[in-house]
Every structure is written in C-alpha cells, then in structure tokens.
Amino acid sequence: MMNPVTNPYSPGAGRPPAALVGRDHERGSWKVALERIERGRGAQPVVLYGLRGVGKTVLLSDFAALASARRWIVAKAEAGAGKSLREMLGESLHGPLADLARPSAGRRLLQGLRTALSFKASYDLAGTWNFGIDLTEAAGGGADTGFLETDLAKLLKDVSAAGQEQGTGLAILIDEAQDLSGAELTALCSIAHLAGQESWSLVIALAGLPSLPRVLAEAKSYSERLFSFERVEHLDDALAREAIVRPAADESVGWTEPAVALVVQQASGYPYFLQQLGKDSWDVATSSPIQLADARVGVERGRAALDAGFFRARWDRATRSEQRYLRAMAADGDNGSSSGAIAERLQRRVTSLGPVRASLIAKGLVFAPEHGIVAFTVPDMASFIQRQPAA
Question: Are residues 116 and 258 in the same domain?
Fold first, then answer.
C-alpha cells in the first residue's frame, strides 16, 4: 500500500495544494502591485471571483504569504463569519502591529499603533490592547467616530504610512467579500479610491463568488474602473494533469497515462475535485505507478466523499421549499436557469418565488450572473441534486 503519510493531495477548504498550478498570471500581477507600491507608484486593488472549488481562497492566502515574505503589514479576514468589517479588520491587524511594536519604533509606526487603539475602541469599549510601549506622546487616534468610512480610512491611512516607513506597506485581503454589507462595500470602494488618489502604501485584494463584480458596481458605479478584476476558473486539461502528476513525482511516484486521464476528466478541471480524487486514488494504489484500476476506485471513493461532504453540506442547508427550487434549477445543469423557467416547472408565479431565491443567494448556494438568471455557486451541483431522491 502507498504511504498515506506522504500522500501529497490535500482536499479541504482553502488548503494549499502541493503544486499551485495555473495561477502564474494572478501571482505575477500581485507581485508587480507590491513592487510598484514599494517604489512609490500606485497599484489597482484586485478582485478575484469565481465558483467555489476553483481555488480563490488558496490564491488569496498565497497573496498574503507573498506580502508577508516582503515584510508587509498583512491583514486577512473572511466576511460572513458573524463579524462586521470593522471587527474583522481591527482584530486581524492586531497581531501584525503587535509584532512591530518596539520602543525604537518610528514616528509613523507609533501613530499607526495609536490609531489602531482608537479603532479598537470604536467597536469594543471593554476591550483593551497593550502594545507594550508608551503612546501618550504619539500622534494618531481619531478612528472612533462611529462612522465606518471615516474610521476605517483613518486606520488604513495611518497603518499604511507605518508600512511605508519600513519600505513596504499594508495589504488588506478579504475573502467571501460578497457577504459584506452594502455600506461596508461602499466604504471599501471609497477608501480604495482615496488611497489611489493620495498614493497610500496600501493594496487591497477581495475574493468572492461570480456575483462580486456586480455587487461592487451596485456599491459604487466607478468600481469597474477602480478594481482589477481576475476571474479564477477551472484548470485546462494540461494544467489539471500537472496538478496531479507533479506532486506525486516529488514523492517519486508516477501515474499511468490512462489513470491520470481518468482523474483529470472526472474532476472537470476544478482544483478541489482534483485534490479529492488524487488523494483517494493514491490511498487505493499499492505501488507506483498508480494504475487505471486504482484511479477508477479512487474516483468512485472521491465522488462519494464529495457527495457526503462538499455537496451534502450545501444541500442540507436548504429548506424543503428551497430544495424544490434547486431541483427545478438542476434541470438546466450548471449553465444557469431563468427565473421564468423555474417558476413554470414549479407551477408558481415568478414573484412568489422571490423570497426563496433571495434566501438561497444569502446562503451562498446560488448567485445571479445577470438579471433574471440564477446559477449554482458550486460546480456539478446539478448532477448531485439529480442523484437525490425526490422528497
């Protein structure tokens, strides 16, 4: 049996793969943005958008690691986790700022620390931060007016100036950004716009579902000119093959051509699926190279694992009426369905289904790629639903 300890495939939400393939363009653009800001030049904030399972969270984490390696101040947060944007960013900045706090800190860093303390007080009057140094004579503060855009702008301006003092800057990365409130998105857009106009040492990266560009446009009409939009898609066959073969080769394990072809075909290029099917095929195999028979069993087990976890978790979050709506969508596959067609199949009026549709969007199970159309946020969800017995 192959050694499960050395299995290089790691399915899981946001887990970095052993080989991050097919993302050279996005990673290269991010490195350019960091270098431009270090040289005092501007860089557009970035929006990564795409279906679940394509690797947006992994890519965002990679962005954070690249910035950290250059000694940037990095704050990474996830929206939709029960905290406001104010709380998320405040708490995610505390650790990086605490690491920089020292008696010999420069003027701008001291100012940034004092402003961070005032920002903390804006959402947690009982909480106290202690950076271990005397800030009574430092400038800063004032990020506790209660107005999100005012307070957040003061925080990011002062902390980015602290980063600039060290020759770097501040990187703000927010996952699941479509779950931010309208007011929070508006504030972020306004601050990003101001940061560009005033040349702050700040770069922002947002990641979210395919609906993210639309909700940003609804927040600020100029968002299509403000952000650099990068659609993160599934991998083509050549890249999917590399994502399977390269990690195994690093462990001195090979794949036969028919075996890797089966896994690539069954995963449809989605990185999460590649990791799951690769893992299960490895665990089945008894020796190198991994054979077609191993891959067949691995695909079967991998699909069962995806059905029991990745898909089931989403299906079970839907109410009975929402499941009926999703089943009506599944008749169209993963290409999206018109609201009219869904209503016709359910023998209901389009307007009467509005609350169900809104609830499914709020739960992140569907999104609206355009007016009057809904689609699944998860690839192959339609096939899973069609395999479920009718209630």
Answer: no
Q: Indicate whether 174 and 38 sit together in one domain.
A: yes
Residue 196 within a domain? yes
* Confidence (pLDDT) at 69: 97
Q: Are residues 264 and 184 part of one domain?
A: no
Domain residue limits at 281: 247-314
- Between vectors from CA 169 to CA 86 and to CA 60, what angle results, nearest 5°? 65
| Residue 219 resides in a domain | yes
Determine, yes or no, domain membership for 124.
Answer: yes
In terms of domains, do 279 and 324 share one?
Answer: no
Q: What is the percent of the chain where pLDDT is above 70? A: 99
Pairing of strands 202-208, 373-376: unpaired
Query: What's residue 391's pLDDT?
Result: 66
Which tokens in the block code for residue 373? 């159309």
Pair 143, 86: CB distance under 8 Å: no
- The model's pLDDT over 297-319, given as tens digits with 9 standing for 90+, comes to 999 999 999 999 999 999 999 99
Distance CA 363, CA 318 (A): 8
Same domain for 149 and 28: yes
State how many domains the chain has: 3
Q: Which residues pair with 76 in a beta bridge?
A: 173
Look up the CATH number of the domain holding residue 54: 3.40.50.300
* Tens digits of residue pLDDT in 377-387: 999 999 999 99
